[in-house]
Amino acid sequence: MWDPELAELRRRREQAERMGGEERVARQHATGRLTIRERLAALTDDWREVGGLTGRTGDDGFTPSNVIIGRARLAGRRVIVAGDDFTVRGGAADAAIHEKQVLAERMAGEMRAPLIRLIDGTGGGGSVRQLEEYGRTYVPHNPGWDQVVANLGRIPVIALALGPVAGLGAARLVTSHVSIMVKGLSQVFIAGPAVVEAGMGESVGKEELGGWRTVAAAGTVDLVADSEEEAFELVRRVLSYLPQSAWQPPPVTAPADDPGRTAAELRAIVPRDRRRPYDMRAILDLVFDTGTVMELARGFAPSVITALARLDGHPVAVLASDPRVYGGGMTAQGADKTARFVDLAETFHLPVVHLVDQPGFVIGTAAERAGTIRRGARALAAVYQSTVPWASVLVRRVFGVAGAAHRPHDRYGLRVAWPSGDWGSLPIEGGLEVAFKRLLAEAGPRAAELKAEIAGRLEAVRSPFRTAEAFLVEDIIDPAETRPALTEWVHDAYAVLDPGPNPAARP
C-alpha cells in the first residue's frame, strides 16, 4: 500500500489550495479582488488543473507556484486557462516556475483550444532585491514567447487584467486578440508609479498612469468591465463569435431574428444636410441580429467603429465610421485600429461587413505629425491582404485614399449603396475652391456668385444614380432592405470560407 505517499499527496494539494496563506488571501479580498481559485470557479466549468503540486519548499514551508494552469469548459467549449496568483509574491515570475506558463501556451496552441489569461501582477523577472540572493544578473528574455506569438495565428487568445499589471504581465495582456480590464480594480502600465518617479522624475498615481480611462483611450485594452463577474461574462460573449481555432469556421447559432426583417427607420436616418452627423450605431442595431452587436475598443480612435455581430446567427466582423467624431474621418490611430481588426477577421474567418461613411483622412499639422498617411496605407494593405468575404454598404461619403479602403477592389465582394451615397476624390465643398482657384480669383466681386454657379453644375452630376448608370457602383438599394441583402450574402459568404491558420497574424 502507498498510504504514506497518498497522504503526502493530499497534504501538498491542500497546501497549494491555500495559495499564499490566510493573511495574503485576506489582503487580496481587502482590495476588492477575488483570488485566482475563486476566479477559476466563477469563470469555468469542469476545471482540471495541471501542475498543481508545483512550488518550492524552504525554511518557511511550501510555497506554491503563483501560476495556475489547466483545462476547463467555458460555455460548453474546451479552453485552456492560465492565471496569476497575486497572493504569492504579487504574481511576479520570480516565485513561479515559468515552464507552467509556457506549457499553457503550448497546450492551447497544439490542442487548438482557446486560451484565457487571467493576469494579476508583473509576470516579470522579480525585483532588484533578489540580485544579492542570486549572486548574478541575467540577460532578459521572455520564456516561451515564440508560443505566445504563434498562438495569435492559431487560436483565440483573450487576456484579462484583474489587478495592477506591469512589465511582462502587460505584454502578455496586449499580445492577445481581445484584452479586458476592470474599472478601479486593475491598472496597466509598462512600469508602475514608483519606477516612473525614480526613472523619469514624474509623480503620478496608479489610476492616472494606467487606469481604465487612460488605457482604454490608448487602445491598450479592448473592453472595460465594471466588475470581475462582468469581465468573465465578456470572455464568454467574445468567445461565442470566434471559432475554436483557426482551422475551424466561426460558430453559427440558431437565428433569433427574422433574416428578412426590414427597417423603415433607416430611410430617414441619414440627414439631407451632408454636414450633419447621425447615429451610426443605430444603423448597426437595426441591420444586425437584435442584441448581437458587441463593440470593441470604443474608447480608442472613436471615429472608427469595430464590432462583432451576427447576421441570421452567423458571426461577422463589422467596420463603420462614426460621423460624430471628425466627421468619421480616419486618423492615424483609426488606421491602426482598422488594420488590427481586419487581421482579427482574417485570422478567424469572419466575413467583413463595412458600413461606409468615410470623408477621407483627417488632415492638418497634427495628422502629419502622427504619420497618418503611412499608417493609413498600412490599413489599406490589411484590407487588400484579407481573403475573407467582404460586403460594403455605402451609406454616405466615400472619398479619397481612406475611402478606397472600404473593400479589397481586386476581388469580388458585395457592394451596395444607399440613395444618400456621395463619393469622389474630394468632397465638392472642399475641392471646388482648389480646382477653380484661378477662375474665382479673376472673378473679383462676382466670385461668390460664380462659386454658387459652379457648385450647382457639379451638384447635378453628384447624384449616385449617375454613378450607377456607368456601373461604377453595382446597386443602389432602399436602406430599409439592407438587412435582407446582407443576410442573403452571409450564407453565400460562409459557403466559401476556407479555414486554416494565417501566418501573417499580428497582435
From TrEMBL:
MF annotations from Gene Ontology: propionyl-CoA carboxylase activity
InterPro entries: AccD/PCCB (IPR051047), AcCoA_carboxyl_beta (IPR034733), ClpP/crotonase-like_dom_sf (IPR029045), COA_CT_C (IPR011763), COA_CT_N (IPR011762)
PROSITE patterns, sorted: COA_CT_CTER (PS50989), COA_CT_NTER (PS50980)
Residue stretches making up the CoA carboxyltransferase C-terminal domain: 258-507
CoA carboxyltransferase N-terminal domain sequence ranges: 2-254
One Pfam family from the record: Carboxyl_trans
Domain of life: Bacteria
PANTHER family named in the record: PROPIONYL-COA CARBOXYLASE BETA CHAIN, PROPIONYL-COA CARBOXYLASE BETA CHAIN, MITOCHONDRIAL
Listed name of the protein: Propionyl-CoA carboxylase beta chain
Species of the source: Nonomuraea solani
Lineage of the species this protein comes from: Bacteria, Bacillati, Actinomycetota, Actinomycetes, Streptosporangiales
